[in-house]
């Protein structure tokens, strides 16, 4: 799990979310209201569901293009449970939620490091993006 989490409110614009992603050098943010996670927004969601459709990212809310009601895991769930959920729901990231509040994210890279620490995906997950922090693309 990657501890800590970047989150935006459902009514935030895509521009706000994209700026947060750039500042934090991440490719996803949680969409959360006052007391729960309501979605996950990725850089790919912004590109494919909004920009490619000709929507104005300054006017469109993150709620309009995020993946709603994301499947989540708890901080003490096993790696195999997270992997099974990712496979079953065809997702690459899962929010880690405890008592209804987000505490982190687990992604494919995290699973690679946990299951096969010397594998190529684990090595890639641990490396800096091309061009150093903030300089690469999140795949």
UniProtKB/TrEMBL annotation:
Q: Where are the transmembrane segments?
A: none
Name all CBS domain ranges.
1-57, 66-124
Q: Tell me which InterPro entries the record gives.
A: CBS_dom, CBS_dom_sf, Diverse_CBS-Domain
The chain's coiled-coil residues are: none
Q: Which UniProt keywords are listed?
A: CBS domain
SMART domains from the UniProt entry: CBS
Q: What is this protein called?
A: Oxidoreductase
């Amino acid at each position: 799990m990657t501890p800590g989490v970047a989150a935006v409110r459902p009514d935030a614009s895509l521009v706000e979310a994209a700026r947060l992603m750039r500042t934090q050098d991440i490719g996803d943010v949680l969409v959360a209201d006052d007391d729960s996670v309501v979605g996950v927004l990725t850089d790919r969601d912004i590109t494919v569901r909004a920009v490619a459709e000709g929507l104005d990212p300054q006017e469109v809310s993150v709620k309009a293009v995020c993946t709603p009601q994301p499947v989540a895991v708890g901080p003490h769930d096993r790696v195999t449970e997270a992997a099974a959920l990712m496979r079953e729901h065809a997702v690459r990231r899962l929010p880690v939620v405890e008592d209804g509040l987000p505490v982190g994210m687990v992604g494919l890279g995290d699973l690679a490091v946990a299951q096969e620490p010397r594998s190529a995906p684990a090595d890639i997950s641990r490396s800096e993006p091309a061009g150093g922090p903030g300089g690469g693309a999140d795949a």
